[in-house]
Amino acid sequence: MQRRQFFTSALPAAGAATVGFGRRPHPPLPESLPEQDLPPSLAELTPMTDSEPPGITDEERWGRIAKAQSLMAATGLDGILMIGGTAMRYFTDLEWGLSERTFALVLPSEGEPAWVCPAFERERAAEGIRFGDDIRTWEENESPYALVAGILADRGLRTGRIGLEETVRYHVVTGLAADAPAIEIASADPVTIGCRAIKSPAEIALQRHANQVTITAYEATWNAITEGMTQSDFSRVLASAFTQLGYSGGAMVLFGPNSAYPHGTSREEVISEGTTILFDGGTRVGGYPSDITRSGIWGEPSVEQRQVWTLVKEAQSAALDAALPGALTGDVDRAARLVIDRGGYGPGYRYFTHRLGHGIGLDGHEWYYLVEDSDTILEPGMTFSNEPGIYIYGRFGIRLEDIMVITEEGADLYTPQAATPIYPFA
User: Fold this and answer.
1) How confident is the model at residue 37 (pLDDT cuts 50, 70, 90)?
2) Integer CA distances (angstroms), 364 to 4, 148, 324, in order
3) Does domain 58-196 have CATH number 3.40.350.10?
4) Which pLDDT tens digit goes with each residue over 368-394?
């Protein structure tokens, strides 16, 4: 399974529902090993579900709505519109798959949320809607878009300037333009990103637990490695480790020359002395994904493997030190890139081929991004991946990734940094 596939498949955690985004199905995780076949390092694992923090409360979601309305007032929006996906779930905890039939949430700048729903879906929608009881329906031979204008008008909002959440589909944009021409369309990014970029203590607790589950599964799997193991074998052992911990999870697994492909390749490799092993993935807790990458060497590393691994860790540490509140996102990327450049694997993107990191919340990748020349100011509560890498095609690649949260004092990792190239765990 490639990295993009892993994160768009929205792996469920125990007790947490899978978010239905309407995306095409992806390859399922490998089946877990039978209990009698578990390696000793997995057999001794016990579920971590008892220590799982509470989920997000409805009180917190009402607070999110209130913050969104405050941001609307500051940015001159009369409302924002979103369709099924993580933004809708963030504000209302409702999951709704995408289709050509418009189902939308309208958050007005004043008053309670309202919903636009296909008429034949009303009863199903009503089962899950807990925020606002204004559900406006449209029949199959009608347009849903005039309903949006009516929602604003009925709340005394006559100017009709509405922001669209960034994943709203183009047919909604054109439909609003054609059937509700009095509505001025704008971006809702200042509102939705303005809310979602700063994580609450409850969100941070869920993220931290997801990452701690993941690093526990990773270490147990590393301790189960045997010579001759294939990438598929490793994936199955890792999936079994997550199962032992009470969660569903997995990773993109790359051995040897395959590890030089940052987002994977379809080729299969096996472990032997000196093989580079890279695995990147995680699980979800309360809808919030983890994202950890570990790279290590099975057996004795070559001089270059050890040098590159050490350089990548130094780059990760430099980024961690640079991730202070008030710093710019681009400065954090630059701190890591400078270490790798000075170590002889530059310039720029020559071997460190991607940005340093991405924001992470309900989406595995979300705003903001740690990329050179970006100028977002870091604030406490923002969470990012910190994942420098060096990739040498035809030979091997090394990436080390941990999630960090910005605090008043600096950046705090959810899990300890990797220790050594032959045992990349604390």
Assistant:
1) confident
2) 10, 30, 22
3) yes
4) 999 999 999 999 999 999 999 999 999
Kindly list the domain boundaries of the chain, sorted by start residue. Answer: 3-48+200-413, 58-196
pLDDT tens-digit readout, 77-96:
999 999 999 999 999 999 99
The fold of 3-48+200-413 is Creatine Amidinohydrolase (3.90.230)
The answer on pLDDT for 28 being more than 70 is no
pLDDT for position 22: 30
Is-contact 49 246, C-beta < 8 A?
yes
Residue the block writes with tokens 């009925």:
154
What does pTM read for this prediction?
A: 0.91
Which pLDDT tens digit goes with each residue over 54-74?
999 999 999 999 999 999 999
Q: What is the pLDDT of residues 235-270, one digit of tens each?
A: 999 999 999 999 999 999 999 999 999 999 999 999
Strand partners, 135: 115
